[in-house]
Specification:
68 residues, mainly alpha, disordered C terminus
Length: 68
């Protein structure tokens, strides 16, 4: 699995995911457990929904090689 979730995207997923899971643990609605999805995808850096569409929020490797 190639990384398809960039740094900003990962941070947002983890923050939103944690918020929803904490809400669920604190007695929030059952649907708040959906926060596990962004939390896990943010943690591993790969999103299965991006994959079939060829989407990626990671920086292209060519631009990293040119800068380094």
């Amino acid at each position: 699995m190639t990384c398809n979730v960039g740094t900003v995207d990962r941070i947002l997923r983890i923050v939103v995911g944690l918020g929803l899971v904490i809400w669920a643990l604190a007695g929030g609605p059952m649907w708040a457990w959906i926060g596990l999805a962004p939390l896990i995808t943010g943690a591993i850096g790969w999103c299965p929904v991006y994959f079939p569409f060829g989407l990626s929020t990671c920086k292209p490797k060519d631009s990293q090689a040119a800068q380094g």
